[in-house]
Amino acid sequence: QVQLVESGGGLVHSGGSLRLSCAASGFSLAYYAVGWFRQVPGKEREGVSCISSSSGNSTWFADSVQGRFTISRDNTKSTVWLQMNSLKPEDTAVYYCAGGRGLQLSERNDDYDNWGQGTQVTVSS
Questions:
Q1: Residue 99: half-sphere exposure toward Cβ, Cα within 13 Å
Q2: How far apart (Å, rounded) are the C-alpha atoms in residues 55 and 99?
Q3: N or C: which end of the chain has fewer CB within 10 A?
């Protein structure tokens, strides 16, 4: 019954934009901190961005995406968005959203206990 679903991935050219959505099904997302992670074959899963629970007044971004990505949430819609601008080929990866109930900001994937299935983002030259 508890499920997170990512959407919005796709193929774009370098410099383009995508907006990823993470929607909760079967529970309220209000009390969950939400993180976005990405992974490519042969590399460790890395944190991209995260947002605190409730008002979402605290956020974190990896240095590699700082200034290009933004994160936001709407608890009424039980949805968190990751807006990705000025995309680069090195942003290509499978992107996952994850929820942690009662969790404060964390870039560690081990701190999250609810994960979506992932959505593919491919940025071409």
A1: 26
A2: 15
A3: N
**What would the mean pLDDT of 66-74 be, rounded to a whole number?**
97
- Cα angle 29-30-32, degrees, rounded to a multiple of 5: 65
Question: What is the percent of the chain where pLDDT is above 90?
Answer: 86
What is the band of 95 on the pLDDT scale with cuts at 50, 70, 90?
A: very high
H/E/C letters for each residue in 43-58? CCCEEEEEECCCCCCC
Distances (CA, A) of 80 to 7, 20, 33, 35, 60: 11, 8, 10, 9, 14
Q: DSSP letters of the chain?
A: --EEEEE--EEEETT--EEEEEEEESS-STTEEEEEEEE-TTS--EEEEEE-STT---EEE-TTTTTTEEEEEETTTTEEEEEE-S--GGG-EEEEEEEEET--S---GGG--EE---EEEEEE-
Q: Which amino acid is at 86?
A: S
